[in-house]
Amino acid sequence: MPTSPSSVEQPGRRSLLKRLSGVLAGSFLAGPLQALFGRGATATAGTLTGGGGTPFVAEIILAGFNFPPSGYARCDGQLMAISQNTALFSLLGTTYGGDGRTTFALPNLNGRVPIGRGQGPGLTDRELGAEGGSTAVELQASEMPTHSHVLELTYSTALGTTGSPAGAFLASNASGLPQYHSSSAGNMATGATGDAQPHNNLQPYNTLAYYIALQGIFPQRS
């Protein structure tokens, strides 16, 4: 049975239209992506990075392995040479340390939890690079709730032979004990208790490693 030219050309035509629509869709999406994230930007593994998965300079990552990847360094407060890391220094400056002439420091996140910069509702303001907090705290008297202590007194009964016994004794010729104090004047006080040891002040945690990108795409201000 002879075939018509139109029936032969239809699959090829559909394939061409398919490829053309794919190109147009890619071009349509590329514009907004480049406008939002810069030319060549991609989003990989839920993290916004530069083109081809390249990180931004000074971008910090969390990892479950114990060595910095290529192009990264540990966030351990180490000093870096400005001459060899000019892009990174232009972003960090001496926020985390260094003399600002030949060296600057990386953030030190060893045993620390990062918090967001700024002032949250009802909280104090936190500047970039500021440190604080303690792993253990010893409470002061002013930090304790109002409370009372029990004062234990020893006493005994005895028959008195005079109306004004000396030394606050119940009777001079009996085996009584002092009622409150051995002299006629004095202050009573409870004994000290406790060991004055600091208590643990740590939240539940699981340790990971922080690494900072030394190279990559220089971030642009929005």
From TrEMBL:
Residues 59-114 form the Phage tail collar domain. Signal peptide: none annotated. InterPro entries: Phage_tail_collar_dom, Phage_tail_collar_dom_sf, TAT_signal. Gene3D superfamilies: Phage tail collar domain. Pfam families: Collar. SUPFAM superfamilies: Receptor-binding domain of short tail fibre protein gp12 (SSF88874). This is Phage tail protein. It comes from Hymenobacter gummosus. The lineage of its organism: Bacteria, Pseudomonadati, Bacteroidota, Cytophagia, Cytophagales.
